[in-house]
């Protein structure tokens, strides 16, 4: 299996496992929606619905594959998705970009810069 396919399959697996094991987070009127664009390598998990009179619509995870690296664009959880990718799935730090950090901060993260 080539690197790109491995990374795409791993991202989909990790996000799907998170969504299926965290169903208790959702109330009776909210749900997780998995959004996978395999052609362009965009992978997202959204939480949508209603809590009382409040609309719920936000991105939980947004991960892209850009230039054969995993770019974590958004992680709105306390779940360590980067640690899971690295420790449980063997993705090396030099192939993970913490894109939610400003470019000038990335050299200090221990992960890829771009």
Keywords:
single chain, 114 residues, alpha+beta, TATA-Binding Protein, 5-stranded mixed sheet, globular
Topology:
Elements: H1 3-21, E1 30-37, E2 42-51, E3 54-66, E4 69-75, H2 81-88, E5 96-97
Parallel strand pairs: 4-5
Antiparallel strand pairs: 1-2, 2-3, 3-4
The SS-based structural class is alpha+beta
Q: CATH architecture, please? A: 2-Layer Sandwich
How many strands, what sense, and barrel or not for the largest sheet?
5 strands, mixed
Radius of gyration: 15 Å
Instruction: Indicate the overall shape.
Output: globular
Domain module tally = 1
CATH superfamily: XisI-like
CATH topology term = TATA-Binding Protein
Helix content: 10-25%
CATH class: Alpha Beta
| Unreliable parts | none
CA distance, first residue to last residue: 24 Å
Query: What does the average pLDDT come to?
Result: 94
SSE sequence, one letter per element: HEEEEHE
Give the tally of β-strands.
Answer: 5
Tell me the strand percentage band. 35-45%
Provide a count of the helices: 2
Placed side by side, the strands forming the largest sheet appear as 1-2-3-4-5
